[in-house]
Amino acid sequence: MGKRREQARAYWRGVIAECVASELPAKVFCEQRGLSADAFYTWRSRLREALPESGTFVPVGDSVRMEVELPNGVKLRVPASCAVETLQRVVEALSC
After folding, report:
1. Domain of 4?
2. Is residue 68 located within the same domain as residue 92?
3. Which residue among 15, 42, 85, 95 is least enclosed by CB atoms within 10 Å?
4. Are 61 and 95 members of one domain?
């Protein structure tokens, strides 16, 4: 993948994360920031397709210290015993 394409993916991942955090409807979020709603929806779809299916996650136990919910509804529960290196590999894998 080219550098420019990777920069665009990183940019839109950030924009989509901001939209989710804002809890605003995507259309309103885009209007407030002067973004193209069509481009937003296109990138959200592209990035969502790159995520693994929710059934690919394996339960990690009951001792949860953190839970992360991805835009597609997939929840990742991280146990207190999780090694930092393992968590880093998981985050990298989800970073499309």
Report:
1. 1-50
2. yes
3. 85
4. yes
